[in-house]
Amino acid sequence: MTKERIAKFCEKFNTHKATLIQDTDRYLIIDWRRADGSGDYYVNYIVDKKRGNLIVSGDLGEYGNNGKGPVWWLPKEIMWDKNNIPDMKELEQMKDKLLRVL
């Protein structure tokens, strides 16, 4: 993933805020969308604490059910495209930014 592409994604998400939806002994659910409540470019994180699973869903563009659904609904060519996979440094930067937002 190029720096230009990352910058473009960051632009789309720069007005987002995380909202804790649920935190029980079983699930942690976080909704991350624009501060104005718009559903454009949103992501939902669901942590199943008992099973140790992380479920991520959100805006899929022209794919999924009217652009909504889990990331595995993307075509394999997009999901596994090497240009869409950050290197370790980029991944650490993305994780740091997400942690600051949360």
Using brief descriptors, characterize the structure shown.
single chain, 102 residues, alpha+beta, 3 helices, 28% helix
Outline:
With 102 residues, the protein is an alpha+beta fold. The protein has helices at 3-13, 76-79, 88-101; strands spanning 16-23, 27-34, 43-48, 53-59, 68-70.
Shape: globular
Radius of gyration (CA) equals 14 Å
Q: Runs with pLDDT <50, length 5+? A: none
Mean pLDDT: 76
Class by SSE composition: alpha+beta
Percent range for helical residues? 25-40%
* Total count of strands: 5
Tell me the span between the first and last alpha carbons: 24 Å
Q: Classify the beta-strand content into a percent band.
A: 25-35%
For the sheet with most strands, the description reads: 5 strands, antiparallel
Order of strands, main sheet, comes to 1-2-3-4-5
Order of SSEs: HEEEEEHH
Q: Number of helical segments? A: 3
Description:
- By secondary structure, the protein is of the alpha+beta class.
- The protein contains three helices and five strands, in the order αβββββαα.
- It has a five-stranded antiparallel β-sheet, with no helix packed on it.
- It is globular and about 40 Å long.
- The mean pLDDT is 76.
Which SSEs are present, and which pair or pack?
Elements: H1 3-13, E1 16-23, E2 27-34, E3 43-48, E4 53-59, E5 68-70, H2 76-79, H3 88-101
Antiparallel strand pairs: 1-2, 2-3, 3-4, 4-5
